[in-house]
UniProtKB/TrEMBL annotation:
The lineage of its organism: Eukaryota, Fungi, Fungi incertae sedis, Mucoromycota, Mucoromycotina. This is Phosphoribosylaminoimidazole carboxylase. One of its GO terms (biological process) is 'de novo' IMP biosynthetic process. One of its GO terms (molecular function) is metal ion binding. The chain holds residues 368 to 548 of 554 of the full protein. It comes from Circinella minor. It comes from the Eukaryota.
Length: 181
């Protein structure tokens, strides 16, 4: 957690403000080495003004912390958890096994196997305990999916998502126009 502080500081003041509200989304990762990937999703939540928390929870190095995190998540007001991990990436599946909240898994590309190991570990959850798995290193989509989940119940958030999609559409149409002219 100590090692996250400089990064959080760099993302001030918005994150600080977000963290001061009751978090709706929990972002966790197996190691601080996952942070460069996971902070991209954190930035998206920040841009949408979604209160979130960010922490390191390792399934194999801090198993009891993982249990505590998952079991307290709903009670603490979280609505969804984004969990990123690399290698034999048990974190998202184990958290999903200990909370009934939706869990979104981000396979993080490690130094070997190009992240396919993480992808398979996360996406191949056996029947009964789902983990919504995004593409390798794609914490952007994890954040956008979390925002859509919240937007299903919070009209302001849905409106922001509509505006985000419109902006993307306009960007592409602008490029088409430039190519055509
Ligand atoms: C996993 O092992 C983490 O999620 C990380 O992606 C990977 C490597 O961790 P470090 O050795 O860099 O701490 O638990």
């Amino acid at each position: 957690q100590e090692r996250l502080k400089p990064i959080l500081k760099a993302m001030e003041p918005e994150i600080e403000r977000n963290l001061s509200l009751r978090p709706l989304v929990g972002i966790i990762m197996g190691s601080d080495s996952d942070l460069p990937v996971m902070k991209v999703g954190a930035k998206i939540l920040k841009d949408f003004g979604i209160p979130f928390e960010l922490s390191i929870v390792s399934a194999h190095r801090t198993p009891m912390r993982m249990v505590e995190y998952a079991q307290s998540a709903a009670k603490r007001g979280l609505k969804t958890v984004i969990a990123g991990a690399g290698g034999a990436a048990h974190l998202p599946g184990m958290v999903a096994a200990m909370t009934s909240l939706p869990v979104i898994g981000v396979p993080v590309k490690g130094s070997s196997l190009d992240g396919v190991d993480s992808l398979h570990s996360i996406v191949q959850m056996p029947r009964g305990v789902p983990v919504a798995t995004v593409a390798i290193n794609n914490s952007t989509n994890a954040a956008l999916l979390a925002i859509r989940m919240l937007g299903a119940f919070i009209p302001d958030i849905l409106e922001k998502m509509d505006a985000y999609m419109k902006k993307m559409e306009n960007e592409v149409l602008g490029k088409v126009e430039r190519l055509d002219s």
